[in-house]
From TrEMBL:
Keyword Lipoprotein carried by entry: no
TPR repeats: 224-257, 292-325
Protein name: Uncharacterized protein
Skewed-composition ranges (Low complexity): 199-213
Cellular-component GO terms for this entry: protein folding chaperone complex
Species, as recorded: Chlamydomonas incerta
InterPro entries reported in the protein's UniProt record: RPAP3, TPR-like_helical_dom_sf, TPR_rpt
Iron-sulfur keyword on record: no
Taxonomic lineage from the root: Eukaryota, Viridiplantae, Chlorophyta, core chlorophytes, Chlorophyceae
Superkingdom of source: Eukaryota
PROSITE patterns, per the entry: TPR
Length: 352
């Protein structure tokens, strides 16, 4: 197979995918100086990641230090001076994820995703759009922080940067289909370590479908959905006030989002704000009268507010929908009225 090395343009296009879904995906350009075809983009991205990631906290720096020690070994790390360790911790690098691998089959043209190599340490937010794109390419993964996509030619003898424009960041793009086909071939060839998760996800997509699975699509979360997901993350951390704030932001953007209202009710319950939680449950039940979670949460609110009969009605409604719901059964048992006191014998009566 004869491979033609494409000419290197002086300026090439690449794509920026912000973690913040309120910020649009952007097409950018960069000058490519002769002799710096590799470094020109990487140096630009290092500057972006260093600025966008902010300053690491003391705890984050310590976590990064422990990761470094684990990677190089305690003995080697002990030989580093404090100054050398500080330099290592401050060093900003770029993690490269090949979405379309530049191999012989596709003329050594590839597409890479570039991420902040310290995204986990910095606790950067989930980048849902980049994660979806990676999924469409057969590489399901969680991507954090801002991300960049760029195309290249690399056959080990020559390296050339090529244009990748904004219209190509779509699930229907030819390079995405080629990347997905590569991933499928790797699975067929037994590359279990690299593609186990991709295989599992493809199997899940096929469940219940008589025909072949439809082509994957890149679905961007709406701003309201992003706020809801942030609220869910706050719940997992036990940050109930933060969860209320994020769910409120979601509802401000999309008032009819019942999932956000239902989850905010839970957070409000944990904060002891029973009246507000009951109101959220009521809104959910107006739209979804059979929502068991909302019924259970409203019952809890009504018990706390001293409205026992209304709480019992909610729990009975749960059991009509789910007769074996253990939570509802347990709460009803607690709310069962105490047995009546024994009736005293009338004066002069003889007890038999």
């Amino acid at each position: 197979m004869t491979v033609t090395v494409p000419p290197q343009a002086k300026r090439v296009k690449y794509v920026y995918i912000p973690a913040d879904v309120h910020e649009p995906i952007q097409e950018r350009e960069i000058d490519v100086p002769e002799g710096r075809e590799v470094e020109c983009l990487l140096d630009c991205l290092k500057d972006h990641f260093k600025a966008a990631g902010g300053n690491k906290t003391a705890a984050q720096r310590e976590a990064q230090k422990q990761q470094l020690i684990a990677r190089v070994g305690a003995e080697s790390a002990a030989k580093l001076s404090d100054q050398m360790m500080a330099v290592a911790l401050d060093m900003q690098m770029v993690e490269t994820v090949p979405l379309l691998v530049n191999n012989r089959d596709n003329g050594y043209v590839g597409v890479n995703m570039y991420c902040d190599d310290q995204a986990q340490v910095k606790e950067l937010p989930l980048n849902m759009r980049a994660s979806n794109i990676a999924d469409c390419c057969g590489k399901p993964m969680q991507v954090n922080g801002d991300v960049f996509l760029a195309r290249l030619f690399d056959n080990d003898d020559a390296f050339v940067r090529l244009d990748l424009g904004l219209p190509e960041v779509t699930s229907s793009a030819a390079w995405v289909a080629a990347a997905a086909a590569q991933a499928a071939r790797r699975m067929q060839q037994g590359d279990r370590a690299a593609d186990f998760m991709a295989q599992l996800q493809q199997q899940q997509r096929k469940q219940g479908q008589a025909s072949a699975a439809p082509a994957a699509t890149v679905r961007e979360l709406t701003p309201a959905e992003v706020e809801k997901e942030a609220g869910n993350a706050a719940v997992k951390r036990g940050d109930w006030s933060g969860a209320v704030d994020r769910y409120s932001a979601a509802l401000g953007l999309e008032p009819g989002m019942t999932a956000a209202a239902n989850n905010r009710a839970l957070a409000l319950l944990r904060l002891g704000r029973h009246g507000e939680a009951e109101a959220d449950c009521g809104k959910v039940l107006e739209a979804e009268p059979r929502n068991v979670k909302a019924l259970l949460r409203r019952a809890t609110c009504r018990v706390a507010l001293g409205r026992r009969a209304e709480a019992v009605a909610d729990l009975q409604a749960v059991l009509e929908l789910e007769p074996h719901n253990k939570d509802a059964q347990a709460e009803l048992t607690k709310l069962a009225p105490p047995p009546p006191p024994p009736v005293p014998a009338e004066a002069g009566a003889v007890a038999l």
